[in-house]
Amino acid sequence: MAIVNDTVQAVVALDSATIASLGGMAVAGTADLTNVGSSTSSVTLAAANSGRNGLTIVNDSTAVLYMKYGTTASSSSYTYKLEAGDTFEMGTVYTGIVTGIWASVNGNARVTEI
Question: Whole-angstrom Cα distance, residue 9 to residue 67?
Fold first, then answer.
């Protein structure tokens, strides 16, 4: 039990699967940071990871980045279109592969996975 603002509250430990099923935020103690060079061919931004709790991608490029939940992103098959300098933060946790393709080669995607 814990006391918050003079109110006794129950404290319950939950695993990440239970937190996800309740729609809550999972807590992570580590993060993996990766720089992915821009390409006009589809590249992997984040490999499939069943343990993923979150994902942030910064389009550190002057070109548009087409990001896709799934394989082979293209300018006509994408999940999100990130303009130059845009930041994407995953809301619903997707654990599959994330791919991307740029309109032109310039810069990187800064990927943080937790």
Answer: 42
The CATH topology of domain 29-113 is Jelly Rolls (2.60.120)
Task: Judge contact between 43 and 99, C-beta under 8 A.
Answer: yes
Domain boundary assignment for the chain: 29-113
DSSP 18: H
Q: What is the pLDDT of residues 30-85, one digit of tens each?
A: 899 999 999 999 999 999 999 999 999 999 999 999 999 999 999 999 999 999 99
DSSP 3-state assignment of 111? strand
Is residue 87 classed as helix, strand or coil in its secondary structure? strand
Q: How far is CA 75 from CA 11, 39, 51, 65, 67, in A?
A: 47, 12, 29, 9, 9
Instruction: Judge whether 109 and 60 are in contact, CB under 8 Å.
Output: yes
Longest dimension (CA), the chain: 58
